[in-house]
Amino acid sequence: MILSVDQGTSSTKATLFDQSGTAVTSATVPLGQAHPRPGWVEQDAGEILAGVRSVVDQIAAAHPVDAVALSTQRESAVVWDRATGEPVGPMLGWQDRRTAQRVADLTEHADRVRAISGLPLDPMFSALKLQWLLDDVDPDRSRSRAGELAVGTVDSWLVTRLTGEHRIEAGNASRTQLLDLATGEWSEELCELFHIPAAVLPRVAASDEPTGEVAGLPGRRVHAVLGDSHAALYGHGVRGPGALKATYGTGSSVMGLVDDAAGVPDGLVGTVAWRLGARLVVGIEGNILASGATVAWLSRLVGRSVEELTALARTAPEDHGVVLVPAVAGLGAPHWDPAARAILVGFDLGTDPGILARAAMEAIAHQITDVVDAAEAAAPVQAILADGAPAADDFLMQLQADLGGRSVRRPRYSRLSARGAAQLAADTLGGGFAPVESDTFTPRHDNAEARSQWASALALTHG
């Protein structure tokens, strides 16, 4: 029995899988966020750790656990005191944009940063977050160089506190913007550029490298660690180029595999998908900053639940003419414009909550399609492999097929991040999971007019 912990932006979920990959039971705890200033997104690393311990304890108290797997949010960054193990500041969430000015200050280095890390200069990635945190608590870096402080992403924080090993999984490490994509090791040049002393960094570990014993689970180890999007890709069964998955959540991640870093199309980023032993597997990815978050925002704005809004969206006419571009934190892939601003066009006095809800859901599908279109420079994409909680909505999946002009295949078990991490653990231990059955949504009509309206609205966000 493999206990897979999926630590996400809004909650921590644990699922117990049997040897065939069937989910036996699960537990969930919610997770809060703070927004102390516009564009700032903070979480409490201690709350995240407590949530993980809670869901693990709930399941382990009632069921046998043979191994643990871990899937986590990725670019969020935290600094802690090595002696006490306690954070010395907030965890900066992956959506946090407080370092936008630093991106502007480093523009002359952008090409070099991307050449080494595979990533464009953007506040989403961890390097600038870690620099900001260290500037706050250790401006001269004396504590860092003395070994008093440690830094990491969510997986690194959890593994450190649960096993005592300060390490980071290779795929998560690649999201820091400090990793050399060609070697899979920390880049001295990038660490110097972002003022991150080597002494604070965790050791880069393979995705399938077992940890030491997990506190509270005698004799049990973490046998697989993956970033949440990487875990979903693994859970879909993608092992080579030509397939593309889209994870729907607060934001969205579209990801596939390429043969090497030279195959990364314009507008997308190169990343380590996973490392199995010494073998580094390279992926391509497009990150969307606001997808499900758009519907959640609209829910608060109009005072209706998300469920009510999605029901209303079904009643809106297809030719409503309203376009919402949710560039609330700038635009991610394939546009990479941190200065873009959200825009709503085409509305009039007859626009009602149902039309706004449909426009918000269409915005999710349009953004996914933008990334998929860019990814076709690497290999043709015949179908989108969908996962994540919002993917359970048939209406959204049909919108994706219609607006994207491609079939959408959705596994009947949608929590692919948890299952993917568990599947890697099972593979590591010599087992394996049965394939997941899928539902398919096919395009019903031409998408040219809708895509043209989207492109026109998108152009207005840059001004």
From TrEMBL:
It comes from the Bacteria. GO terms for cellular component: cytosol. GO terms for molecular function: ATP binding; glycerol kinase activity. InterPro entries: ATPase_NBD (IPR043129), Carb_kinase_FGGY (IPR000577), FGGY_C (IPR018485), FGGY_N (IPR018484). Keywords: ATP-binding, Kinase, Nucleotide-binding, Transferase. GO terms for biological process: glycerol metabolic process. Pfam families: FGGY_C, FGGY_N. PANTHER family: GLYCEROL KINASE, SUGAR KINASE. Belongs to the FGGY kinase family. This is Uncharacterized protein. It comes from Tessaracoccus lapidicaptus. The lineage of its organism: Bacteria, Bacillati, Actinomycetota, Actinomycetes, Propionibacteriales.
